Each structure stands twice: as structure tokens, then as C-alpha cells.
Amino acid sequence: MMLLENQIPWLVLDALTEFLPLDVRQFVADIGAKFFPKDDREKVPGWIVRFQMFLTKGRRRRVPAKTESRGQSTISYRPAHLLGLLRFSQIQSMQGNERAYQAGSSSLLSSSAVELAQIGVKLSTSTATWLGDMSLGKKLVLGELLLSPLFLNDVTACWLVNMAALEARTTWDSDGFVVSSYLSVVAMLMDRKEDVHELRSKGVLRSLFSNTQTLAFFKGLGQHLRLGGRYVVVLEQIESYKRNRPVRIAIHRFLYKNYKIIAAVLFTAGVIIGIFKALLALKTGSHF
To answer: Can you tell me where the transmembrane regions are (predicted)?
Structure first.
């Protein structure tokens, strides 16, 4: 259904839906929601969920007319085909300044998830409502790379590949490689299975694949992606972080790599100090 080569022109699809009791836009919005891990329902008490379901029972769900940064709503937007609508549903709420990224040099070094952890950059999930959000923020001591959470299985992997293919075959007024840039950054963060585990542990990635399968998917896909401006901007932000915090990075890297040894030394020192205190107390008591 979402294969690029099998897409039916929207004009034909729109005419066919006139004879079907189906809201195509709601259908696409529902399946597009599969990209995002379902945390919200887990945090809401069960009785609230059941009450909400009772209130909405019998009503036909409608797609809210969200407005894009260019003033275009989901209802007024006319895609070329169903795959185009799926992509639009994922990025429609992206702000105009997010689309208008101006990238500089692309000859920058990439960093894996473990390497970022070593230099003090924490991976966190973005709360943005669109797929592909990513930015590096600088805190007082550490940095934080925010990424849209992603759920990966056979179906969503197929959709991602085809949306990236659609971006590569389309002419855009501005940087239209939103999905491609996001996938490129995720692929960049993965060099080893340990990197996949790091992404899982931070909630950025949830996958039905094993770490080995997930790594193979992203590294294989990353070789064929168009590098959009958003990808280069993230690399520039990481490079700026490294350049402006050399002392803090060196200290954090040392602590990160040697924290087990440091913890063992501190534990041993604590034991020795405790023994000396006990001996001193015994010695002091013997004088009375």
C-alpha cells in the first residue's frame, strides 16, 4: 500500500473514496501514529482511558484541521498519492524555521551514540509532534541531543524506506529531506550493537528487531539516503559542542571510561578508612 512504485494518483483515489465509508485522512493519521512509541496511554490511569472511549463511542473520528507553517491544513492539502499524504501527516506541524535550515559544510565527522555519551551528550526523546525532530541543546555541564522517538518493525521500516525514496525523487522548494535527514542521523549514531542498546535505553528507538537486525537495517539504508540540511546542521551542532567544551569533555570522557575503577578505589578507600577508625576506637578504649 505504501510502496512508491505502487502509488495510485490522488485524483483517482479521491474519486474511489466517494463510494467507501472510509475517512482516508484519518486512516493515514492512524497508521502514521505507529511511528511513535505509545507512552501516553501507559501513563494515563485505566479508568480515564475507558471513560474517554465511552464518550467517543459511536462518533466518527475526524482529523483535526491542523495548520502547517505555510498555512495549509491537512484537509486542504492535496498530495500526489497516499504515500505523500503519509509523509505530510508526519511533518505537518513542523515549524517554518525548522524547515528553513541553512546547512554549511558537510565534511564533518560523525559520532556514534556511545561516543556522544563519552563526551557528555545525553540522548533524549523529543516531545515535538512531528517525525524527524532533532536538535542539540547545551546545558550547564552536559549536552542533550533530542530526537523524535521511533517504533520500528517490518511495516514501519517499509514506510520509512519509501518515504525516503519519495523525498529523493521529488523536487522541493526548500529542504524537503526531513525524513531522510532524521534517518541519516539515527544511522550515524549506530556503529555497534552497543549503540543500538544505548538508543533503546534512552527511549529514542523501540524495535521488534534484534540489535543486530536494527543495526543492519539503518547502516544499509544510510548508504543510500540523500543528506538533507537538517542532518548537516546536527553535525555542526555536535562539532560546535566539541569545540567549545574541550576541558569538560576531557573530564567527562575520563570519568565515563574509568568510573568502575574510580568506584572500586573509593569503595576500597572507604573500607580502609572504616578499619582505621575501628582500630583507633579500640586503641582509645584500651587506655581507660
So the answer is: 261-282
